[in-house]
Amino acid sequence: MRSSDPDERGSSLYARGFGQHGVRVGRLAGVAPRVDGADAADAVADARCAVTETTILLPVAALSADHRLLAHATIAHAIGHLRFSQAARDAGGHVPMMIAVLSMLEDVRVERLMARRYPGLRLLWGRFHRPAHELQAMGLSFATLMQRLSLALHDPAYRDPHHWVQKGQALLEAIGGDLHDAARFGEVGAVLANDLGQMRVRFDAASYRVEPAYRDDNTYLWRFENSEPQAAIVQPDDTVTQSADAGGTDTATPDRQTEIAHAPVTYPEWDYKTNVLRSDWVGIVEGVPVRTARQHEVDLWPLASRPEVPACCYRVRSIHRLRRQPDGDDLDLDAVIEHEVMRRAGQSGDGRVFTNPAPRARETSVLILLDLSESTARAATDSGSTLLDLERQAAESAIAAFDSEHVRVAVHGFSSNGRSEVRYVRFKDFGSHFSAGHRAALAAVRPAWSTRLGAALRHAGACIEQESHRLKSVIVMTDGQPSDIDVFDLRYLIEDARHAVRTLAHRRVRTHCIVVGLHERRVATEIFGS
For residue range 245-293, what is the model confidence (pLDDT) as tens digits? Predict the structure, then answer.
């Protein structure tokens, strides 16, 4: 039925200009049809458009003549979702902070696609982004950081000083023009949301409003079944526990009461800006993991499901030559000379004048270092396995293939909560048999905190240097770049980790990295080499 409101008719005609003939533009229910003065400003600030497959519902203030540009910007944005977004995706596995970040990046994706076809929309939408100087004066709340990232992604010329915004820009720039691959935007969103969690940024779903004002409430994108969105994953600084509603499986115990097995050990840290190695700068605390599951919730990865590969295929071997052999593919010159001397002296030699190559087991120590940070909680496969699950499975496979008399394998893990508390966990040490208890401890650990890689590498190097084997290697399994809650320079911990790798190399400890997931392979190459 045709609307009797001229503002609604005008908005409907504007939508038809995009070819959306089957979509009706209407007014959000529950708001008075006419609002003036300060009340109108409040309505614009709070109310957001709602989108369905057949309807675009605008806030009443956007339908007034004074806010016609807002209506046009809102309609164009909503049409972007109708054309390019997947509707009603399952939100069951995401916390509200993650949903907010993923929604904002989907907003950016569809706006870029719309701007390809209608270049004038970029200028229209740009009117509603707050100026940079206002945003930078508003603090570092979740809402403000989201607005700053939105501005940075809308205006390529804008360079925000905050490291999180810079990282978001860099990750989106890496995607380039492949705007139809929504999954890549989702991967970026997962990284950024986990970074916010590690930064201890709070998210209040009740007060959060999508910005800029022309964007919709994003209910079109998500399906919540019969449950409310999960509670935010961010914990206050004095706890490490996660709400049971947020999917946490640990008990509610303050981190300061967590069992500590050893006194802190301090290590230096490299400051690349001043070229100074800060002595005793980082504290390593050995003990139990920050978070573990309850015993009845531990789901051991079944050994039978692992592909069986003959262990002989993985034995670490070197080649040496057996001398004085009765046959072979090369001559043993010393034996030939000795044989000829004996022959000329009238004695008969034994004819053993050949050499043969032969394999010999090399005595090696390998320390597998697992990243246990919060970001490894991300789903890695369609079956729901997390990045940490992949790390665990890879560690068990390495133990099954290598651990022997000649190759000693240890499995350790780490996560960090600032420079004074880098938690270091020994799941299996050198020389111990990988028992059911080891497997249970590894399966029970849950992701928490951040990734101060350089400090963990230095401590792992100190552990493996106690081994008598000549060949020593540390293999890091991680999902991305180093980060911590007290570091805001993106390069600082990268350069420190590079320094740790070089230091271990000088001490004849090799370092390698296995990147699980699709993120930050470039950073791993910077740290460990190609």
Answer: 333 333 333 333 334 445 689 999 999 999 999 998 999 998 878 776 6
Assigned token pair, 427 = 């799941």
Q: Rounded to whole angstroms, what are the CA distances from 468 to 365, 398, 408, 471?
A: 8, 21, 10, 9
pTM comes to 0.50
238 CB neighbour count, 10 Å cutoff: 8
**What is the amino acid identity at position 229?**
P
Q: Which of 153-167, 337-351, 480-494 has the lowest mean pLDDT?
A: 337-351
Architecture of the domain made up of 265-300+363-528: 3-Layer(aba) Sandwich (3.40)
Q: Do 142 and 97 form a contact (C-beta atoms < 8 A)?
A: yes
Nearest to 456 by CA among 496, 396, 506, 510: 496
Burial track 239-261 (b if 16+ CB lie within 10 A, e otherwise): ebbbeeebebebeeeebeebeee
Please list, residue by residue across 472-510, b when 16 or more beta carbons sit within 10 angstroms of its beta carbon and e when fewer do: bbbbbbbbbbbbbbebeebbbbbbbbbbbbebbeeeebb
CATH 3.40.50.410 intervals, the chain: 265-300+363-528
Q: What is the pLDDT of residues 116-158, one digit of tens each?
A: 999 999 999 999 999 988 898 888 899 999 999 999 999 988 9
Query: Rounded to whole angstroms, how far apart are CA atoms 417 and 109?
Result: 34
Give the H/E segment covering residue 517: none
Return the amino acid letter for 261: A
Distance CA 331, CA 352 (A): 9
